[in-house]
Amino acid sequence: PLRVQTLPNLAADQIVTFLCREVVLDRNQRIAGYQFMLQEGVHAHIRSGSRRVHHLYAEVLVRSLVNANIGELLGHRLAFIDIPDSFLANPCLSDLPAKNVVLTPTLHADEGAPSIKALRDIVDTLRAAGFRLCIPDPTVVTEFAPLLPVSDYIFVHAQVLDARRGLHLSKIIHEVAPNARLLMRDLPSI
Q1: For 112-153, what is each residue's pLDDT tens digit?
Q2: Which of 51, 85, 125, 128 could form a disulfide with 110 if both were Cys (CB 3.0 to 4.6 A apart)?
Q3: pTM for the complete prediction?
Q4: CA-based angle 172:173:178, to the nearest 5?
């Protein structure tokens, strides 16, 4: 799906990658940052792809953000980037402006995921470099629960959050990750 196609009359340096972004609002409905991704069509094609394909997607996304000089464009705002858990060790991440980047590891069914100890070591190294971490709701994606104490954000899909789950999640955050902030995704409206 990310195969480079030779386009007539276009040199390789003229081929453009289209970045998409969604606004991330704070509780006062001011822009706090953006979630970045490649074109939705590309993302839809790789959903059932292998870990290798997801790595390719992540690398294209990261390189596109670096080439767009995202650090200067963001100013004080944050860039939220979803990447495979096994991509966290990729050296291309060091080209991103760490102080503005929140990395969100995602699970993949294929083999090749790092052990939780290796993942924690990688996350500790990234955090020491200035990156922030956002993990999915640990009551839904339990594999990342050991990363709660070092998480800056915990995201929840609005469709699956009810009062009981919200109270349970609030208790977990208060006890295990008191500095983490809750991030809601896929809100149907303001």
Answers
A1: 788 899 999 999 999 999 999 999 999 888 999 999 999 999
A2: 51
A3: 0.84
A4: 135
Tokens representing 180?
């983490």
Of the candidates 140, 141, 138, the one whose C-alpha atom is nearest the C-alpha of residue 177 is 138
> Which residue carries 């704070």 as its tokens?
26
In angstroms, the CA 84 to CA 23 distance is 22
> Could you tell me which residues are beta bridge partners of residue 36?
21, 81
**What tokens does 177 get?**
């990750």
Q: What is the pLDDT of residues 69-122, one digit of tens each?
A: 998 989 999 999 999 999 999 999 999 999 999 999 998 777 878 889 999 999
Interior angle at CA 152, CA 146 and CA 157, nearest 5: 80
- Strands 153-157 and 31-38, bridge-based pairing: unpaired
